[in-house]
Known about the structure:
This protein is α/β, with parallel strands linked by helices. Helix content is 35%, strand content 25%. It has helices spanning 51-58, 80-86, 102-112, 117-130, 146-158, 176-191, 204-210, 228-232, 248-256, 276-288, 303-310, and strands at residues 14-23, 26-36, 40-44, 66-71, 74-75, 87-90, 164-168, 196-200, 213-218, 221-227, 238-243, 261-263, 269-272, 293-298. The strands form 3 sheets. A 6-stranded mixed beta sheet has the order 6-7-8-3-9-10, sandwiched between helices. Strands 2-1-4-5 form a 4-stranded antiparallel beta sheet, covered by helices on one side. The longest helix is centred in the middle third of the chain and has 16 residues, at 176-191. The chain is globular and about 75 Å long.
Amino acid sequence: MSQDPPTRTVDPLIDLHHIDKSYRRMVALSDVSLSIGDGITGLLGPNGAGKSTLIKVVMGLVKINGGGGTVLGHRLGRHGRKIRALVGYMPEDDCYISGMTGIEMVQFSACLAGIPSVEALRRSHEILDFCGVHQERYRGVEGYSTGMRQKTKFAAAIVHDPLYLILDEPTSGLDPEEREALLNRVRVLCERFHKSALISTHILPDVQSICDHVVILSNGRVRLSDRLDRLNTPTSPRQVLTVLGDPRPFVAALQAAGVEAVTEPDRTISVLVTSPETTEAIWRASRDHATVIKSFIPTRNSVEQIFMEAIQGDEHAHS
């Protein structure tokens, strides 16, 4: 992997305008317009929302019925091979060739990208080390666990040092430790090696953990596209308090002081902070009632809340 930042004159990296895609009578994508820049973008949506079709469109693997756009500076429909040469794609489904070992699979992927065989083998060993695949690389892939197959697929996707990563359900089937390890590798590639990524996933905590931008599809349409930090900003000036001991007496003291406060089921306290005077009243009540405040933080919208609000009313998604 090269640590030198690539010369990038394309902004946004993915720029789509009014994309339509149908399979006979089934509409997969309808009037999709989307701009995606640097960083890590999470692609969310219910099953059948059009995520896989959108990925195929971006990679030039399917013909669109209408619209157009560019990917990494290349036009859709004309420069599919150039686009795919710049992209590292990790599919959701298994894609190994029976009889191959892990090292052979990754080397084969490197050779398909035009890397000479000896250099492809050297790179494959380097990348498998990065992905945490050790002596298992010499075993047949068909005997791998789910975690090992995911690591090997990821290695095959990045062995040719692509500019952009497209990862389809990369942490599906992984235990929490393996999930975090794979997400950390994506972070390293994007932060240290100057890559960008599109991650299609149904695991919402992964999006909260790693993504800069979120795109939500439903029924083949873009329902939301925005930076995650903006989406996390609460619309209500509420803050969350945690205290030592039973929170109910302190909530009663806050209410007596004119502060709007309620006890939540998880024993936190939700307070409405409308002015500096409200904050002063909270700390005064803490002092007067000898209550230790452990934390006092603003609320933020969860990815789950953002997702449910975005797809509200879309009860049936196209497959």
